[in-house]
C-alpha cells in the first residue's frame, strides 16, 4: 500500500516540479494572432555526444531543457552535437485551427520535427540539406510543417538539429493565409534583387560589343556566382536546381563564393589593369587568384564543414585585398577607382555584419540577416558605374585622337595645295610644247585620213556581216538566259523545300522524344503488374493515342488508362501531351481514383482549354479508365467510346463505354461505373479503334471488333509476351495481305490481375 501511495505521489508531484516553470511559457495561438515568433517560448538542450533518442528527450522524467530567455532566434556557433529544442503551444480559440510552423534557416544538415499531443507522437518529419528535397512535408525552400489543433487543444513541438555549420533555429508560426502573404513579399523582393543583378549583367555584355573591353564581359561572372550563393543560403538552389542531390546543394554554397572570388580576380586584372599598374598590385591580384583557386578545390573535395569554414575565413582577406587594389589604382591616377573603392567599402561593411550575425556575435535582426544582400545590391551598381565611367574616359580619349588626326589632315592639305600650284606651272610649260608637236601631227593626220577612208569602206562591209552574226548570237543568248533562269529558280525552290522538310522532320522527331518522355516506362508496368503487354504503333512518327498508369499507395489502388485523341500526327500528339498533364493533376495531385470522376474532371479540363470551334480540339478525346482495388479485390471501369474486354474462367466479357466524347459541348454529363469482382486470375484489355479499323485480309475489309474479341479469347490463357507477339503478327499479316497502309494510330494493352 505504501508503494502504491508513493507512486501516486510521484505521478502528481514530479510533473509539476519538472514543468512548473514551463507553464507560463506556453505559446498561445488564436485567430487574433496571424503570426507568432516562438523564440521567447523555446527551451533547448545540447546533446554533445549524440547519444539521446526522442523517446528519452520527450520523457516526462527528462528535465534538462533550458529556457532560451531571449527574443532573438535560437542560435549557436559551429558544433558537432545534436541540438534539441521544444516549444509548448495551445489553441486558445473555441474552434479547430490550422497553423504552419516555419524554420526560416535553410543551411541545416538535418532537421527533425516531432509533434506530440497527450504524450503521444502524432507527426514526425526528417528533412534538411542532407535529405532529399522530396522528403519535405511542404514544397518550400524553408522548412514548413503543418500543425492542426482542436479547440483549446495543447501540443508540444520538438526539433532536433544536427549540422556541420552554424546552428540557427528561427521558429515562427503562421496562419496559412498570413504565410502566403509574407512569402509572396519575400519572393518578390528576391525577384527584384535578381532582376537588378541580371539587368546589370545584360547591360555589361551589351556594352562589351562596341568597346571590346574584356572587363565588361567578365563583370557578369562574379554576379552570377553571388546570385547562386544568395539563393543557396535561402534554399532556392536546393528547391529548383538539385532537389535530388543534397551533395550538390551543399557543395554549391562554398563553391559559389570561390567562383565569385575567381570572377572578381579576373575582373580586377582587366578593369584595373593590375599588370601595368605596379608589381605590388599585380602580386596582390595573383594572391586573390590563388585564394579563389584553392577554395574551389577545397569546396569540391573537402567536407561541407571544412569548405564553409575556409571560404568564411578567406572571404574577408580577399575583400580587403580587392579594396587595397582600388586604393593603389586611385593613387596611380585612375579617377574611376573611387567608385571601385566605394563599392568594396560598402560590401566589406555588409560582409562583416553578416559574419558577425552568422557567428552569433551580432543580434538576429532583418538588417543583420540580409546585410550581405544589401552589400551586393550597392556593390554591383557602383562597380557598373565605374565601368560606365571607364567607357566615358575611353570616349574622351577617342575624341582627342580624332581631333589630333583632323589637325594633321589640315596641315597635310595646306602642304598639298602648295605642291598643286607648283605642278600647275610645270604643266603650262609642257602644254606649250605639246601644241607645237600637235601641228606637226595634224599634217600627218591629213595623210592618214585619206587612207582611213579606204579602210572605212572595207570595214562597213565587214560590219554588215558582223551585225547579222550578232543578231543570231543575241537570240541564242536570250534562249540560254531563259533556260539558266528557270534552272536557277528550280534549284532555289528545291533548296527551300529541303530546308522546310528538314525543319519539319526535326520538329516531329523532337515531339516524338517529348511524347516518349511523357508516356509511362516499362519499369512502371513491371512494378505494378506481374504480366502485361503494350502494343503501341503510331501511324506516323508521333501518335494521338496514349496510355497512362499510376499507383495510389494510400488507397492501395492502381489506375490504368487508354486514350484516343481526335486525329493523329502532330494535332493528336499535342492532345496526348495535354491529356497526360491533366491526368497527373487529377489523379496524382487531387488523389481522385473513381473512374467516372476522372473522366468528368478530364472533360471539364479539356472544355476549359478551348471552345468547340477550335480546330485543335475537333471532336475531343475517347478514354477508358480501369482502377484495380487491390485491397477490395475488384476492378472498376468507366469509359467514353472505349470498351473494356476481359476474360474470366475462359469466358469473354465486354463492357462498352458511354457514347460521349471528352471535350464535347455537353455541359452536364453522367458516366456509368462498372464493378468487376476478382474471384480468380483475369485478363483485362484496353484498346483504341486503330486495331479493329485496319483494312486488309483476303477481301480488303476491316479487322472488326468481333474478330478482335475472338483473337483475345483465343490468346487469353497464354503469357502476355506471347499474346503481344501474336497480336503484332496478326495485324501485320492482315495489313500486308493487300499491301494496305496503316490507317490510324494503334494502341492495345493487356494485363493479368490475380484475385
Your description of this structure?
With 755 residues, the chain is of the alpha+beta class. It has 3 domains: 16-174, Immunoglobulin-like, CATH 2.60.40.2380; 193-391, no CATH class; 519-753, PPM-type phosphatase domain (Phosphatase 2c, domain 1, 4-Layer Sandwich), CATH 3.60.40. Strands 1, 3, 4, 6, 8, 9 and 11 form a 7-stranded mixed sheet that branches. A hairpin with a 2-residue loop joins β8 and β9 (120-127). The radius of gyration is 42 Å and the shape is flat. The two termini are 59 Å apart.
What is the 3D shape?
A: flat
Specify the number of helices.
18
Beta fraction: 15-25%
Q: How far is it from the N-terminal to the C-terminal residue, by CA?
A: 59 Å
Q: Mind telling me the C-alpha Rg?
A: 42 Å
CATH topology of the largest domain: Phosphatase 2c, domain 1
Category from helices, strands and their pairing: alpha+beta
Q: In short, what is this structure?
A:
It comes from Flammeovirga agarivorans. This protein is α+β, with helices and mostly antiparallel strands.
Question: Topology of this structure?
Answer:
Elements: H1 2-19, E1 27-29, E2 35-37, E3 43-47, H2 54-57, E4 66-67, E5 74-76, E6 82-91, E7 97-103, E8 110-117, E9 120-127, E10 143-149, E11 154-162, E12 167-169, E13 171-174, H3 176-211, H4 214-218, H5 220-233, H6 236-240, H7 246-271, H8 274-277, H9 279-301, H10 304-331, H11 337-358, H12 366-369, H13 371-518, H14 522-528, E14 531-537, E15 545-552, E16 557-565, H15 569-589, H16 595-609, E17 621-629, E18 634-640, E19 644-648, E20 651-655, E21 674-677, E22 682-687, E23 695-696, E24 701-702, H17 705-715, H18 720-736, E25 746-753
Parallel strand pairs: 1-6
Antiparallel strand pairs: 2-13, 3-4, 3-6, 5-12, 6-11, 7-10, 7-13, 8-9, 8-11, 14-25, 15-16, 16-17, 17-18, 18-21, 19-20, 19-22, 22-25, 23-24
